[in-house]
Each structure stands twice: as C-alpha cells, then as structure tokens.
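job 3f2a | input accepted
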Amino acid sequence: MSKSYFEESQKFTQWWLWMLLLAGLVLFIGIASAGVYIQIIKGTPFGNNPMSDTGVIIFFVISIVFGLAMIFIMKSFHLETKVDRLGISYRFLPLIRKWHTVYRQDISEWSVVKECVFHYGIHYGLNSKTLNINGDTRLLLILASGKKLYLGTQKPEELSQAMQKLFDRQPVN
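job 3f2a | predicted structure (173 res):
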C-alpha cells in the first residue's frame, strides 16, 4: 500500500453500549451467583426444577467465562479505513481480517453522508454493505457495479479531503 492520504481506526467507545453489555453480564452472572449461594451454600434447591450441584457450579463458571469473552470480543472489534492513491481500503477486525480495497476506477460517485440510522457492525442490504462502529456519519461509495458501500467515520472532514485528493475533485451530492 502506498502513502496514505487518510487513516482511521474506530473502536466501540459508546458508554451506553458498554452499560448495556455490563448490565446484561451482571444480571447473567448475578443469577448464576444466586444459584451457587442458594443451592450450594444454603443447601436449598434453586428454582422450580433445580439442576444438580455440579450443574449449578458449571453454569456459574460458564457465565463468568462467557462474560469475559463478551468483553474481550467487544474490545477487539475495530474498523480500519485507509485512503491512498489507489483507492479506499478497509477491514473490520476480527471478522474481516484481510484488507479489502475499492480501487479508484471502481468508484463512480462518493460523498460523506450523515444519517439518523445507527447501524453498528456489518450490515448487508440488497445492493449495499455498511460497516460502522460509532456515530451516524459515513463515507458512501457508489460503485460502477451499482452497489453501495458505507464506511463509518468519526473524521468526516479529513476523509472528505482525502477523497478529494484521491479524485482531485469535489464530492457528488
């Protein structure tokens, strides 16, 4: 890859998303902990159809491992975008590990758009694909094939300048 005009790496940093994840995990681990306390420590069966003591302990351990795994997975997700003289390259780690490049000659139009739709992650439509980590601002690429690619950005002005440099012209709106 040649010298970049633009580089961006985004991670999930939304406080509300982390609060939802942590609240769910606290609830899940809390139920498992209550099962251990009531059934193992107090000796009273937990629930209407209680598991064996071994099952309760296994469920508790699995809930902790699952919780830690969810935190690790969410921390590992990030969208990387680069613009250089060849085109736009992106990857969405850990799901899309290899760089995908949309070459300049394959782009018929582009613009930086702001939409009220908050899609996080990877979304596929009939003729579109969206990769977004944070916010509602995206680079829209309309490809020569007619397909659309949306790449989320937190640096719309810098990305627009890089795209103008790539095409040596203004965006199509």
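job 3f2a | The first strand starts at residue 4 and ends at 11.
job 3f2a | closed
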